[in-house]
Specification:
Structural class: alpha/beta
CATH topology: Rossmann fold
Distance between the termini: 9 Å
CATH class: Alpha Beta
Number of helices: 5
Number of domains: 1
CATH superfamily: Response regulator
Largest sheet: 5 strands, parallel
Strand order of the largest sheet: 2-1-3-4-5
Radius of gyration: 13 Å
Shape: globular
Number of strands: 5
């Protein structure tokens, strides 16, 4: 499999980010960690990855703003976003415009399958 640029964004637990990054690398993807907020949006705009995995426990409004920033880049291209949340966040996150929603606890096979479904 050719390497793809998959940016893994994690806010709450650095350990989770590393586990996701490792699972994607093991599946043949190039996975990088990125930052929250405008710096993260700038990194996505600069690197133009195939997808973003956003794992967060932040408030709905903050997630909405971040997703909007990812979606409206200078190049006008939409980046597919997989959002990983707690089970109670399902409805709100779907309304934020994620391409795919995954619930915690998350296993590596589920993450890799979701990425493959979006980007191949």
């Amino acid at each position: 499999m050719a390497e793809l640029s998959i940016l893994v964004h994690i806010v709450a637990r650095p350990y989770d980010a590393e586990v996701m990054r490792r699972a994607l690398i093991d599946a043949g993807y190039k996975a990088e960690l990125t930052e929250w907020g405008s710096k993260g949006c700038e990194q996505v705009e600069r690197d133009r990855p195939a997808a973003v995995v956003l794992s967060t426990r932040r408030a709905e409004e903050e997630c909405s703003l971040f997703l909007r920033g990812l979606r409206v880049g200078a190049h006008g291209e939409s980046v597919p976003v997989i959002v990983v949340v707690e089970p109670g966040s399902r409805l709100a996150t779907t309304q934020l415009g994620a391409d795919r929603l995954l619930l915690r606890p998350l296993d590596a096979a589920t993450l890799v399958a979701a990425v493959r479904a979006l980007v191949g």
